[in-house]
Each structure stands twice: as structure tokens, then as C-alpha cells.
Amino acid sequence: MTIKLIGMDYEPMGVATDLVILTVRAGSLQVLLIRRGIPPYQGRWALPGGFVRDQEDLESAARRELAEETGLASERIHLEQVATYGEPKRDPRGRVISVAYLALVPDLPAPVAGTDAASASWVPAGEVLADPKRLAFDHHRVLSDGVERARAKLEYSPLATAFCAGEFTISELRGIYEAVWGQTIDPRNFHRKVTKAEGFVVPVGTTTTRDGGRPAQLFHRGEAKTLHPPLTRGLAAGG
Amino acid sequence: MTIKLIGMDYEPMGVATDLVILTVRAGSLQVLLIRRGIPPYQGRWALPGGFVRDQEDLESAARRELAEETGLASERIHLEQVATYGEPKRDPRGRVISVAYLALVPDLPAPVAGTDAASASWVPAGEVLADPKRLAFDHHRVLSDGVERARAKLEYSPLATAFCAGEFTISELRGIYEAVWGQTIDPRNFHRKVTKAEGFVVPVGTTTTRDGGRPAQLFHRGEAKTLHPPLTRGLAAGG
DNA sequence: GCAAAAGTGTTACGAGTACACCCATGT
DNA sequence: ACATGGGTGTACTCGTAACACTTTTGC
Question: How far is CA A15 from CA A55, A86, B40, B55, B86, in A?
Fold first, then answer.
């Protein structure tokens, strides 16, 4: 099928968005997967996603999917475009272009709202990435790109706070880095770097003992969009 | 128009690729623009691009456009995806999704082959970016994103060599950085950093006097995909 | 008191900056 | 000889890594 458009021909294609929704739960980086109820790849795990509607913006479509799968409708959830996948045979149903988005959400009190729990669940990202055949379509590649983006951005942006609740302690923030990077970080140097980086975290003024030990100050995220200096992934283990 | 696809409806859309083709000429970062011969935006400047064909991969489509506009058909030309733009009203002809690619090419001996010179030309990127109304569609935004990507990647990848001919001197490489970043760099510290960074440049063994003064060693690009340590954009002016 | 986690001080090291200085060519 | 750019040596500074040490809670 070819469509004429003022002297120019083009092949119409399906346009979808797929979501890499990440969170940190129980000290590990986890991704939200759904089990497909219909062909193709029926019964296999896949990233949440769906077709973009007429007159709907790409990011709006991604945000709609996110709300449908997690119940998180807030504009404050971090959502960013990662890449677009358009290999001709990637979807056996026909030509479908997929725009992948990365969403970072805090550990949700209610596991997954707005959808039936049987078909959606959190799975450790490392476990999924270890098996290239686990996911439907080219979703292994999409997940891999999304996770790598998240890892890279933690270095030079204050993005880690997107995984945290409104108020958090420095060691909770450190737990995010340790889960995403898969390595331990010296708590003392981390504390100093993070609190000194301009606009990264701002103290709330209250403390909590929920992590045990001496009470820790609570912080909320600052206004900074980039980190100076960056947190290097080589920030080694210690103490 | 809605298409049924195994119980799922989707709106078919046009899918295009647009190219941000950058080079460094006469000490400035320049972008290849074409003057549109047909509506919409007839007579306005725009990024080269076109619809993706049936059974054609996104990157293949971008590479085809690149070859058509520049005559550069080599697989060795650096080409990477930047972002996808899909605002519903971005193209007045109808719903068109555009996948933007960034291409970095050396300063071509023949200006622009494979196309009529009247309609395509190199324009300093800074000049275009200074006027948000210069380009058709949302191409100002696309160009802006592409240039920012190039600037950022010079820091942590050996990408600058993509702007160079097969063999180049360190000061020619430095000229790339100065043009893209718009700042001067200390030639002595730059020389040391670049030649010491593992896999960035490898000496050919011959020298040239084409830059004047003492003969300079010639290098070609190395195998490294990332730079350790990175070249900071704060690499200050000097001497 | 003891364990546990928060938070501070200090030292050693390595990378970045600035710049003095020498080298090899063209004119 | 002199100008021009290539290339090396080196001192200073600053961010990081490592880790000893003090603080404040729960049990």
C-alpha cells in the first residue's frame, strides 16, 4: 500500500512506544515486564507498550502507557526517549516502528496498580539481560539500551533521585547507585561528594532512624540538571 | 484511517529520516542544508531527509539519504541516531514521524557531489542556530539536538576523528575540537592528552609540513570506542 | 555497654592547568 | 637569522581514594 502525498509517495507504518520502566527494589535494579496475552509471542515476557494514537504526541503516548501499567500519572515521573527501532521484520504482524522511552520510578508502595497483577511484574534487570531469548520482539536490545542509558546518566546528572521517594537519606541514595551500577561505594566519600555537589540534594531539616544507627538527615532533590563534578563509576568500594 | 491488525487498531503514519550532516570547514562547524523546492516551506532551508521505504531499515534509509546528498556512500562514515520527533502537527501534510540521524564527515575535497549545487550548501551551524526561524518544520530543534550530541560525544569518545581525513596531525584534530566547542585549547596539553589516551590515535610514521613550522607527525584513528580519561570541555585556552 | 549507621578529618596520589623551554622546518 | 608551529619538562592545584576516627541512635 502506497499513499500519495503532494507528489511524494510513502509507505504508511505502525508507530508504537515501548517502555523500559525501572525501579530499585530490595537492593536490585528491576524492570516492569508484562506477559503477552495475545499473539505474536503469546505467553512471552515483553516491555509494556502500544500504538501511538492519531493526534497523540509520542511522549504523551508513552506517559499514557506508563499510567496504564503503573497507575503513575504524575508529570513528575522521569520519562525520556532512548532510541527508535525500525528493523523491517521486527514485528511479524507488519511494519511497525517503535520509539522506546525510559521511565524511572520510586519503589511503589502498591506493587502495580491499574492493571491485573497476574500479567505484570517486576523482574531483576540483570536476570533478564542474562538471557537474550527471554523477551519478545527486539525487546532485549531495547532493555539493554535503556539500562545502559540509566547507568550512564547517573554519572553526570542527578537522575538517581528519580528512583527515590520525595524525602530520602544519603545512604538510600547510595543504595540506588549501588543497585544500578552493581558495585559498592564508599559511604563516607559518597556522602561528602553528594552533599557538596551544587543543587543535587537539599536538606529538609528533619532526620530519620529508619536505616538504623545514628539518625540520618533527610533530603529532597535539588534543582541542578547536571552534576559538577560528576560521580565517576570508578568510585570504589570501601570501609 | 484505521487499520485492523489482529484485533488491534493502529493509525498508519509516515516515517521519515532527517539528517544532521556536520563537517568542519575553515575552522567552523558547518551543517549541510538544502533549499526546499516544493511545498510545504517551499524556498526555505531544511535538513536533508526523506521517507523510509518499505522493507528498508531506518539506518539504511539515513545512509541512502546521506549518499544522495553528499556522494559519500562509505560504510566508514560515522552515522548515529539522535532522536525521534513526532509532534502531531509538525508536518502540515499529515502525520509524519521523523527519526533524526547525525552524520560526521570530513571536509570534502569536492563540495557536495551527487546533487545540484544550487539547492544544497554548507552553512555555519552557529549562524543557523542563532535564528530559530531559519529552518523548515521543527528542524531547528533537530539541528540543535544533533549539535549538542556531537559536542558531548567529543568529550568521552574518539569521535572527533570522524571529522578528519584518513591521516591527520594533532593540530588538525585540535582544530576540530576548537570548532565544535567554540573555544581555544592549549596545544601542548592537548597533544599530550591525545597521544597518551589509549587507542585514540596511532602514529603513521610519516610527517607533514602542511600546517607550517616544524614537521608534524601524521596519525590515523585508533580502535578505542571511549576515551580514558575523557577530554573535558573545560580544557582551557593557553599559550 | 555494644552494634550499627551517620558524618568528619586527613593523607597520598593522580589528573589537569599553566607555562618555560627546546626542536625542526620554510623563507 | 627569524617566524612558525611541533613537542617535552615541570611546578602548582584540585578532586579522588583510602581509611582512622567521632557522633548518635536502638537494643
Answer: 12, 9, 23, 15, 10
